[in-house]
Write a structure and sequence with these properties.
Chains A, B: This is Transcriptional regulator. Two copies of one chain form a homodimer. The first copy, chain A, is mainly alpha-helical and 154 residues long. Chain A is 49% helix and 5% strand. Chain A folds into two domains: 1-84, Arc Repressor Mutant, subunit A (Orthogonal Bundle), CATH 1.10.10; 85-123, no CATH class. Chain A is built from six helices and two strands. Chains A and B meet through α1, α4, α5 and α6 of A and α1, α4, α5 and α6 of B. The structure holds a DNA duplex (30 and 30 nucleotides).
Chain lengths: 154, 154
Amino acid sequence: MLKLSRLADYAIVILVKLGEQDGVVTSPALAAITGVPEPTVAKVLKVLSAHGFVLSQRGAKGGYRLARSLADMSVASVIAAVDGEIALTACVGGRECDTGLSCGLCGSWDVINTAIRSTLEGISLESMRPKEACSTVLAQINKLNATQTVREGA
Amino acid sequence: MLKLSRLADYAIVILVKLGEQDGVVTSPALAAITGVPEPTVAKVLKVLSAHGFVLSQRGAKGGYRLARSLADMSVASVIAAVDGEIALTACVGGRECDTGLSCGLCGSWDVINTAIRSTLEGISLESMRPKEACSTVLAQINKLNATQTVREGA
DNA sequence: TAATTAAAGACCTGAATGGTCCTGTTTCGG
DNA sequence: CCGAAACAGGACCATTCAGGTCTTTAATTA
């Protein structure tokens, strides 16, 4: 299915919502806004804080706020922070497959990984915000498809 | 991590290897070639057969062979056959998020899903074969990156 | 100093994936 | 005609890991 982990999903939602608030926001408040369970929100925020996406302020009247603008955060970077490196398969960077498969495809996998990574790096959290930005991204996709000519099958 | 399931990984390796043989090949033989455990190979081949990627021949002297050329199989189609639809997150096609998140980002996710899908559809199994085809795909990636200008963050 | 809130980490649970096996059914060879 | 070989199609188990909870500690403010 090639699906994203839910934590990464949450992380993106949380960041976007956090960007729409002003001042510091507590994790319970963000939980209320997003509908994500509070402990999970806290967990995600810790990770995001550790990776420099948000700034935390401890103590009374503490909370979180964005470390930089949404436009300066790519979807890829958030996913990488929460879930680790984006890699579709075990054999990455020329390392041998763990199972010792004689697949000989390791290099080719890297190509795919790079393609996916580039795609996600090209999408900022700013463009994830509802409505307005969608058309922009859609235009990108169309241009992207026009470029894609390697081949397609049924 | 956004990683591919191992079954889909195997499926691609098996198809590529199958394409390099001539005549029908038994699943034990493919297991030997790929290094994947035989029962697993058999399982994957059944799925691939059901989805029309390979043709099976039953009985003694039976085995499998490709239903069409590797160039006519996209990475995306194989993944979709083995793992189901490619979708990075729960909210797809405008459906509400199952958790009832008030994320309001559902539409934006679709954009990402489409982008990933297009990328993988642009890569054929033929181009997964070692060596020769890599340069071609790499050129694609570069062109693709040049097109991507939405924005990128740290 | 007391209350509030984030930081950090241990820990539990459950779903889902990967992997195995078993029982047909078909086809070829003797 | 019979047996072996090989696919078909399940059921089934086991392991992993993500997701979520709880507890303790530390910092900040009133």
